[in-house]
Amino acid sequence: MKVTTKDVEYIAQLSRLTIPEGEMEKFTEQFNQILNPPQTLRDDFPDSLDGRIFSLDDEKNNTKNQANNE
Hints:
Blueprint: H1 5-15, H2 24-35, H3 39-44, E1 48-49, E2 52-53, H4 56-69
């Protein structure tokens, strides 16, 4: 999902911030860099696998399961 200038204007309005018109493109680009990580990062660190979403609680359970499988 790509963030648009209109999205940044809306976020600024909700935050009660004033972004100078000359800075709007810069803010839009920065939001896109933050919210849309590079594909290699998404490939290396998936948040789901086979339809299962990972969470901190899963880490504890997966550690126990790995110990049982050895």
